[in-house]
Prior knowledge:
CATH class of the largest domain: Alpha Beta
Distance between the termini: 21 Å
Order of helices and strands: HHEEEEEHEHEEEEHHHHEEEHEEHEHEEH
CATH superfamily of the largest domain: Zn peptidases
Largest sheet: 6 strands, mixed
Structural class: alpha+beta
Strand content: 15-25%
CATH topology of the largest domain: Aminopeptidase
Number of helices: 12
Radius of gyration: 24 Å
Helix content: 25-40%
Strand order of the largest sheet: 1-2-6-3-7-17
Shape: elongated
Amino acid sequence: MTDLATRVRALMPSILADLEDHVRIPSVYAQPEHRPDVDRSAQFTADRLREAGFADVEVVEAGGAPAVIAHHPGPEGAPTVLLYAHHDVQPTGDPALWTSPPFEPTRRGDRLFGRGAADDKAGLAAHLAAFRAHDGRPPVGVTVFVEGEEESGSPSLVPFLERYRDRLAADAIVIADSANWDVGVPALTVSLRGLADCVVTVRTLDHAVHSGLWGGVVPDALTTLCRLIATLHHDDGSVAVEGLHRGTAADLTYPDDRLRAESSILPGVEQVGTGSVVERLWAQPAISVIGIDATPVADASNTLAPSARAMISLRVAPGGDADQHLAALAKHLQDHAPFGAHVEVAPGETGQPYAIDASGPAYDAARAAFREAWDGVEPVDMGMGGSIPFIAEFAHAFPEAAILVTGVEDPDTRAHGIDEALHLGEFERVCIAEALLLEKLGTR
């Protein structure tokens, strides 16, 4: 193993100590009461970058959450590498459901538990480890960009890129916000689904009426909404909306026992859709109902609900257009209104999918770094069923840059969920790989 790997291992105690301190800051930008914590998290990030040896560090914003930009110039003629992460985190849900408090980092076995321990404060920690492993003098120029509103959809990213474009320009962009194929198997993420959502409202009555007097003749809105939602899928669970793009995925096997363990699907519950697992996860559209507004059970009475609404989430396969797909979903909902019900569709946010041509010197360097860090294990080119819409924005802003999507997560990280955790052994390999990547990019 190289000297860089030895240096990274020596740095790990201090890197993990900083990560744990960062996890203790509840930087949930989506919750207004935590906006001061987001500010504090940005300052913490800036301080760690200065301590690592970046002389040019600034907390900046473009109408949204504070972000941090740091730059270290490279040798004459060397390429510049932009290292991306985000310091904001998802809400925790009910803290009582966590095995340990979400903002108190806790080590159990080979994992560090806590909100943001992986997604994505570990991404920043990996960047710091890689830079420090080179004693602050890597063979490339390094710019670090740490965003503060990724978990809220990066609403101010476009004006941010416009305002700070010159400071963020790079030959290669490393986005440390994805996952590896498995514990012990590294991966480059080469495709991501896009995202669109809408709220559909169904109305059948001017006001609530007695279910005994009118039931059986007058349709209630909640039953009608359920029937409308049911039209979104065929009987096998595949998406029934016309006009949605479907692509192809890598020839990778995702065994049923692994899927069940990692997804937490209950015994006896069947998979939905057709095609291989990775095709359904990475290259096909998916539609889910993620929320319903109706009369709560505790408040129910024998009346027919006059209205009900649901939020529908659509994942868009790479190669599709999120705005066009949202329009197709809205048309389907309006065209399939049961019983002549009044249906209104309010469009929400969209984020474009992205597919990466992962060929060329930068990708060769990344794969070589992965093989070395994982002791000869061949890296996998994988897709991601989730969405990182800002990658398409980066690609648009910097069309000549090679975009490398790497990650600190593994299939059991539980990002966004209860008991989010970072696998410490994999995290060390991630840090080694990024240090090696900076070295290899400097020699190509």
